[in-house]
Each structure stands twice: as structure tokens, then as C-alpha cells.
Request: fold
Amino acid sequence: MKLPFKLLTTLFLFAQLLSNPAFALTLTDKEATIFAEKIWQNEGAGKSKYLTHWNKHETFASLGMGHFIWYPASVTNRPYQESFPALLAFYRQKNVAIPSWLNQVTHNPWASRAAFYADFNNDRLTELRQWLKTTFPTQARFILKRYESALSLLLKSTDKTLKGNLKEKLNTLRQTPHGLYIMMDYVNFKGEGISSKERYQGKGWGLLQVLDAMPNNSTQPYRDFVKAADFVLTRRVLLAPKEESQWLPGWRKRLDTYLP
Reply:
């Protein structure tokens, strides 16, 4: 399949970024933009309209290049970790200006998907898309921070035996910049795997579950990560209380980006 020139350029620049040994520590605006574009290709095919999105049969909006979750106040059953309020707090911490109306709301002001799309081309959502598009570097740094926090949480939440195996697998993946990308993207994609709420019949699908499903002493860590991720995501679909099989092809397509 022939890739579009813009995507080829993005992937080439991203490969240059991954060759930078300082990548795991800090991101320049240029580096953060390249990283954000890669994630954005995974999340929304690089299309601006998906910067403010609400999937059918879901009770929350998905916003920004990382599709950060934002629930309306009326939703009390929240099986997935809400991340958009934390992103806004990160903007404020970094003294990055946000649209004034966001300072006047605590929860997602659209009570339903229908209300959200009825307002899709009006001032607030139009401004939100424009603002999110121009602040990709901040969103990339937020994902980096979440990844760093995830590592600490993973190691704190496991017993000694599992912790030793996790450290080995984490270190194997972290030895290469591509492995770092894989873990950062997956944490943003499906979470850390620690929250008891993110379970179907007691089985999770986050980074913790993928690492646990990987074989020890892997000689092909990228492929083993993809196989393990495919396993836990397929298991999620099988155990889900509602139909989720329609998402599996897209999830697998994302996992394909983890193969060199």
C-alpha cells in the first residue's frame, strides 16, 4: 500500500525523533509536535473533525489528539478513566492559555452525544478544535507525563515476583526508542491497567495486562508486545457486557504501528 506523502514525512521525522537518546527526558516543541502527529494518526486519522468526537454508544466525549475522555456531570457510571480534566490542569500548570469558557465549567457541558453534535459547528466546539490543534506539543507532554506516572504505579501495584518480571520486560522495551513509543502510546490508548473499574469480569486490558501476557526473556519484544496486546484486547471483546467487536479491527491496525 502506498502511503500519502504527508504521512511518510511524519513517519520519517518521527523516526529521527526516536533516534534522539534524550527523547525519554524532554521534548522540544518540534519533537512534541512530531510525536503528537504520530499519536493523532492513530487516534483520529489526522482529521481535525475528530479532535472533538463522541462515539456511538459511549457516554463521554473524546477530545484532542489523544482522545482524552470527558464525562458529563450526569454520568455516574464511569468505567473508563477520565483524562480531559487532568489535561486542562496540566495546561494551567504549564501556563498555557485555554479557551475562557473552559474555566467556567467543571464537567462536560454537553449532556449527550445528540446535544454534542447539535452544537458541533457552533462557537465553543469550533474554538475547541482550533485550540486543540494548535497546542499539540502540550498534549504530547501530558502523555509523556502520564507514561512516566504509569511506570511508577505499575511497579507499586504488583507483588515481588510479578514486579521482577515487569521490570525485565519494561527494561527490554525501554532500551530502544521504538519500545518507548510503544509503551507511551499504549498507556494513552488503553491505560495503565491498574484501575479496578477498567475490568470486564475481572480482566483488564491496560499496559499491566499486556506486559503480564508477554513471555519472559523475550527476544522479539515488539512482536511479543503486539501478540500480548492482541490477546488482552480480544479477551476484552469476548468478556464485554455490550458488543465491542466493531472496534477490534481498528485496535489491531494501531498495534501494527508497533512493529518496526
In short: The chain has eleven helices and three strands. Strands lie at 52-53, 61-63, 68-70.
